[in-house]
UniProtKB/TrEMBL annotation:
<dbReference type="InterPro" id="IPR000829">
    <property type="entry name" value="DAGK"/>
</dbReference>
<keyword id="KW-0479">Metal-binding</keyword>
<feature type="transmembrane region" description="Helical">
    <location>
        <begin position="102"/>
        <end position="122"/>
    </location>
</feature>
<feature type="binding site">
    <location>
        <position position="71"/>
    </location>
    <ligand>
        <name>substrate</name>
    </ligand>
</feature>
<feature type="binding site">
    <location>
        <position position="30"/>
    </location>
    <ligand>
        <name>a divalent metal cation</name>
    </ligand>
</feature>
<dbReference type="GO" id="GO:0005524">
    <property type="term" value="F:ATP binding"/>
</dbReference>
<keyword id="KW-0472">Membrane</keyword>
<feature type="binding site">
    <location>
        <position position="78"/>
    </location>
    <ligand>
        <name>ATP</name>
    </ligand>
</feature>
<keyword id="KW-1133">Transmembrane helix</keyword>
<keyword id="KW-0594">Phospholipid biosynthesis</keyword>
<protein>
    <submittedName>
        <fullName>Diacylglycerol kinase (ATP)</fullName>
    </submittedName>
</protein>
<dbReference type="GO" id="GO:0008654">
    <property type="term" value="P:phospholipid biosynthetic process"/>
</dbReference>
<keyword id="KW-0418">Kinase</keyword>
<dbReference type="GO" id="GO:0005886">
    <property type="term" value="C:plasma membrane"/>
</dbReference>
<dbReference type="InterPro" id="IPR033717">
    <property type="entry name" value="UDPK"/>
</dbReference>
<keyword id="KW-0067">ATP-binding</keyword>
<dbReference type="Pfam" id="PF01219">
    <property type="entry name" value="DAGK_prokar"/>
</dbReference>
Length: 124
């Protein structure tokens, strides 16, 4: 049991390092991620200023986490497609555009829910 413990611990740290470096790489390369991170800071600050409820804040964090996670998966799919082919291909286009649509769908829902949260807070 004990002999496995240091290895598990190391793997956990390595996974964490890989995840951080993946995020940094995507952040450096993806302009969308800059915009989303900037928007996230504004949204959190504004939510605190207007005193959004604790549950409201938790939903805000979930929405931000969802948008950023989907953007990272979208970036991963873009890289995989570019790795598979540098040529124009309808399936490459379909893969990239579908991944982009996933981010778009979640973002539209996230904005809609945030508008409802703000409206509800200000009308309280
Ligand atoms: N190999 C390909 N074959 C066909 N169409 C492609 C291919 N690569 C990209 N495209 C098309 O060009 C668009 C732009 O591709 P690109 O890889 O530059 O993504 P992007 O617009 O930079 O995405 P994001 O803005 O999310 O970073 C894609 O959404 C897709 O419609």
């Amino acid at each position: 049991m004990n002999e496995h413990h240091p290895r598990r611990h190391k793997n956990l740290i390595d996974s964490f390092k890989d995840a951080i470096s993946g995020f940094v790489l995507a952040f450096v390369q993806e302009r969308n991620l800059h915009i989303q991170m900037f928007a996230a800071i504004i949204v959190i600050a504004f939510s605190l200023i207007i005193h959004v409820s604790v549950v409201g804040l938790m939903i805000v964090f979930l929405l931000i986490g969802g948008v950023i996670s989907l953007e990272l998966i979208n970036t991963a799919i873009e890289r995989l497609v570019d790795l598979i082919t540098q040529n124009q291909h309808p399936l490459a286009k379909a893969a990239k555009d579908t991944a982009a649509a996933a981010v778009w769908w979640f973002s539209v829902i996230a904005v809609t829910i945030y508008v409802i949260i703000v409206w509800n807070t200000l009308m309280d």
